[in-house]
């Protein structure tokens, strides 16, 4: 099995963290986003969308972080992707909720327009409106996640067992380091994220992300949550 990834990518870090924690026998191939390696014809032959991560298992090519996590977990028979149909459905639902709701607004609406030039709006009025609207929607998602989905009695996103949904969600929430977000209004989210940050492989997996994005942005005048 081969993974094509860059640790600075939000969607790569969940897969890299799961591989590191589970010991899955996956060979890492670095695709350096800052050098445009994902735009080259050689990589486009692997993933025509020219996005990371991508994954190969013999003659099968797979894209999308969520799908890759599930495939690897199944391949190594990991309990992080439960075999029980109802438990698995809950994990799938949580990953879809994160991807289509929270990440859409927090990542693509709030974070990326402030960090990456190609996501910024040309006109300041549109830029400000986009960020402010996404910030309010992000707070709505955080309230739901904190009070209704995690709540005070769950250790993880889907009950009390660590699943691939936690790895996926932790990758999204690692962006809070970049944005210097205060999560104290959402104590259950904060507690869950602390648990994920305490995984043995967390610091190593996030080393490049911290060095190349978090540290250089420490003084950036971001709009805060």
Report what the structure shows.
The structure is a single chain. A 4-stranded mixed sheet has the order 2-1-3-4, with helices on one face. The protein has 2 domains: 2-75, 3-Layer(aba) Sandwich (Glutaredoxin); 85-217, Up-down Bundle (Glutathione S-transferase Yfyf (Class Pi), Chain A, domain 2), CATH 1.20.1050. The protein is an alpha+beta fold. Helix 1 runs parallel beside helix 3 (65-75), helix 1 (12-22) crosses helix 6 (164-173) and helix 5 (124-150) crosses helix 8. The chain has 10 helices and 4 strands; from the N terminus they run βαβαββαααααααα.
Q: What structural keywords apply?
A:
single chain, 225 residues, alpha+beta, Glutaredoxin, Glutathione S-transferase Yfyf (Class Pi), Chain A, domain 2, four-stranded mixed sheet, 10 helices, 4 strands, 54% helix
- Structure class: alpha+beta
Sequence of secondary-structure elements? EHEHEEHHHHHHHH
CATH architecture of the largest domain: Up-down Bundle
Helix content: 40-55%
Largest sheet: 4 strands, mixed
* Subunit organisation of the chains: single chain
Distinct helical segment count: 10
CATH topology type of the largest domain = Glutathione S-transferase Yfyf (Class Pi), Chain A, domain 2
**Number of discrete domains:** 2
Total beta strand runs: 4
Mean pLDDT: 97
Please tell me what the overall shape is.
globular
Low-confidence runs: none
CA distance, first residue to last residue: 39 Å
Q: Biggest sheet, strands in spatial order?
A: 2-1-3-4
- Strand content bin: 5-15%
């Amino acid at each position: 099995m081969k993974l094509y990834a860059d640790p600075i990518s939000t969607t790569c870090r969940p897969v890299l963290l799961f591989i590191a924690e589970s010991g899955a026998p996956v060979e890492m191939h670095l695709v350096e986003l800052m050098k445009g390696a994902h735009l080259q014809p050689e990589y486009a032959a692997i993933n025509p969308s020219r996005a990371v991560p991508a994954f190969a298992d013999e003659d099968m090519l797979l894209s999308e972080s969520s799908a890759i996590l599930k495939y690897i977990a199944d391949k190594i028979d990991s309990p992080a992707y439960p075999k029980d149909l109802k438990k698995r459905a809950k994990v799938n639902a949580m990953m879809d909720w994160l991807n289509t709701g929270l990440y859409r607004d927090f990542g693509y609406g709030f974070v990326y327009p402030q960090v990456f030039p190609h996501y910024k709006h040309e006109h300041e009025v549109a830029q400000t409106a986009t960020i402010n609207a996404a910030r309010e929607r992000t707070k709505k998602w955080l309230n739901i996640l904190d009070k209704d989905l995690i709540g005070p009695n769950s250790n993880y996103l889907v009950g009390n067992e660590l699943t691939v949904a936690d790895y996926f969600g932790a990758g999204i929430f690692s962006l809070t380091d970049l944005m210097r977000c205060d999560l104290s209004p959402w104590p259950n989210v904060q507690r869950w994220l602390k648990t994920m940050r305490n995984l043995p492989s967390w610091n190593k997996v996030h080393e490049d992300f911290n060095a190349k994005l978090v540290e250089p942005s420490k003084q950036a005048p971001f709009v805060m949550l």
